[in-house]
Each structure stands twice: as structure tokens, then as C-alpha cells.
Amino acid sequence: MVENGKVVPDDQVDLRGVLCPINFVKTKLKLEMMDSGQILEVILDDGEPIRSVPRSIKEEGHKIIKVENMEKAFRLLIKKA
């Protein structure tokens, strides 16, 4: 959903401190519970999580619509395929 020019996620999950590949598995499970076209916000740690999770999400056919660098973490917005 878009409000005032900003994308508002339909659901969110904070995976800071969660190691690979568990963070991808949790993201995938969350996406499976959502409807096509909905937006999921995922918060990930820097390093391996931000390198691995977006790549795996794209391989699943979903679309990364935004990556935002927060302090010591990243915010992803994923549109479910």
C-alpha cells in the first residue's frame, strides 16, 4: 500500500540477530502466509544476511522494491510474487 508517497508494508519481521539461513527461512515462511502483491518489511543485519537473503528472495520470484541502510541494519521491502 502507498500512503503519502511512501510504501506502507502489509506485514513486517525483525530478523536482527538471526543467522543465515534461518533468516531466509523465516522470511520465506512469512511471505507464504501473505497474498500476492502484498509488501513485507524485513529488518536484517549487515554482512552475510543482507548479501544472502535478497538474492534468495529474488530466486524465489519475489521482488525487492527497496533496500534502506539503517544504523547497523538494513530494511528491505519485498513484494510477494
Commentary on this structure:
With 81 residues, the chain is α+β, with helices and mostly antiparallel strands. It has one domain (2-79): TusA-like domain (Translation Initiation Factor IF3). The chain is 28% helix and 37% strand. The protein is built from two helices and six strands. It has helices at residues 22-32, 48-59, and strands spanning 2-3, 6-7, 11-14, 39-45, 63-70, 73-79. A four-stranded mixed β-sheet has the order 3-4-6-5, with helices on one face. A hairpin with a 2-residue loop joins strand 1 and strand 2 (6-7). Helix 1 (22-32) runs parallel beside helix 2. The protein is globular. The model has no long low-confidence stretch (mean pLDDT 95).
Brief account:
The protein is α+β, with helices and mostly antiparallel strands. 28% of the residues lie in helices and 37% in strands.
Radius of gyration from the alpha-carbon trace, in angstroms? 12 Å
Total number of beta strands: 6
Number of domains: 1
CATH architecture: 2-Layer Sandwich
Q: What is the CATH class designation?
A: Alpha Beta
Strand-and-helix sequence, N→C? EEEHEHEE
- Termini Cα gap: 15 Å
Strand content: 35-45%
Separate helix tally: 2
The CATH homologous superfamily is called TusA-like domain
Arrangement of strands in the largest sheet? 3-4-6-5
Give me the CATH fold name. Answer: Translation Initiation Factor IF3
Q: Can you summarize the main beta sheet?
A: 4 strands, mixed
List unreliable stretches of 5+ residues: none
